[in-house]
Amino acid sequence: TMSFCHNVVNISCVNSSWSNDVRASLYSLMVLIILTTVAGNLIVIISISHFKQLHTPTNWLIHSMATVDFLLGCLVMPYSMVRSVEHCWPFGEVFCKIHTSTDIMLSSASIFHLSFISIDRYYAVCDPLRYKAKISILVIFVMIFISWSIPALFAFGMIFLGLNFKGAEQMYYKHAHGSGSCSVFFSKTPGVLAFMTSFYIPGSIMLYVYYRIYFIAKGQARSINNASQQLQIGLEEKNGISRNKERKAAKTLGIVMGVFLICWCPFFVCTVMDPFLDYTIPPPLNDALIWFGYLNSTFNPMIYAFFYPWFRRALKMILFGKIFQKDSSRCQLFLESNP
Q: Does residue 35 form part of some domain?
């Protein structure tokens, strides 16, 4: 098969060894992932922007994360798709640097948002009386600023200053740079640094915070149960509600953590190990793991939004064009006391 890369630029490109059928299947699958990511996150962005009732500090954090994931779907994934299927990079060296930097920045920013959302949820569940005073719109703004700026400085600094291959220049020119490819490449120290910054630190914060939330929520539910057992008058259903809420919260947290770890852990572990294994991890495996990581951005709107009844109502209104009606932004999506 004639690789599309050969038609675009005359470079010594490793011809895609896959048959046309395999490539067509891969393109179809990746286009589906891209469209789902873009559509899902776009709906979250429109919902939170449009409905006045959703203008809460927490939701602006979710809105910002959806923006990151939306941009990843629009700006990064389509080019990664060509690289993954064709086994080469037909878009030139400068754009390779821009693409790699943007990829690292947006993937890291998405993970940063997840860890800040966990901190926000911690205060909401564990200190509800002081939550509004502690997590003000200013605090949320600072969280959003950190989530965008640190990954941007880190990613663009690393790639454009060539710090990512410090100490492994020969390997870099042989592996990542040669044969017209454009893969994310790290030498030992920068690899460990990237692993710590983009995955280990924000991931550990999430794990610790969700672990705390789970036990505090359990304790709260137990004390409500004990109190209601002492009263035992007409509180049977309240008991059920608290147990239900606790179960639902635990389930949501379990899914959030599970999806995050399943999606990103394999890629980051391979990235940090590769330089120590003399770059023996095959590029197709690395590529597959990057796509696994991207799936986190595909699932984020499903996890965070589809768990909330307000999101389902907003989705219906968007799909049926009801948001174009007069005063639709003032529509009540949920009862104020119970978002």
A: yes
Q: What is the rounded CA–CA span in Å between residue 289 and residue 262?
A: 10
Q: How far apart are CA 153 and CA 316, in angstroms?
A: 39
Q: What is the CATH number of the domain that holds 196?
A: 1.20.1070.10
| DSSP 8-state secondary structure symbol assigned to residue 5 | H
Interval 196-210: pLDDT, tens: 999 999 999 999 998
Q: Rounded to an integer, what is the distance from CA 115 to the centroid of its chain?
A: 10
Strand stretches in the chain, DSSP E: none
Distance CA 99, CA 227 (A): 57
* Rounded to 5°, angle at Cα 98 from 94 and 101: 135
Domain contains 30:
yes
260 lies in a domain?
Answer: yes
Helix H, strand E, coil C: the string for 78-92 is: HHHHHHHHHCCCCCC
CA nearest neighbour of 179 among 30, 23, 26, 283? 283
- The pTM (predicted TM-score) of the whole model is 0.88
Contacts of 180 (CB under 8 A, 6+ apart): 5, 9, 11, 12, 13, 14, 88, 89, 90
Q: What is the DSSP letter of 186?
A: -
Identify the domain containing residue 248 by its residue range: 19-330
Taking only the tens place, the pLDDT of each residue in 48-99 is 999 998 999 989 999 999 999 999 999 999 999 999 998 888 998 899 999 9
- Whether 244 is in a domain gets the answer yes
With beta carbons less than 8 A apart as the criterion, state whether 181 and 14 touch: yes
String of DSSP letters for 226-242: HHHHHH-SS-HHHHHHH
* Number of independent structural domains in the chain: 1
Which tokens sit at 34?
């891209």
Per 3-state DSSP, the chain is made up of helix, strand and coil in percentages (nearest 5) of 80, 0, 20
One-letter amino acid identity for 284? P
Q: Are 111 and 264 in contact (CB under 8 A)?
A: yes
Q: How many CB atoms lie within 10 A of CB 229?
A: 10
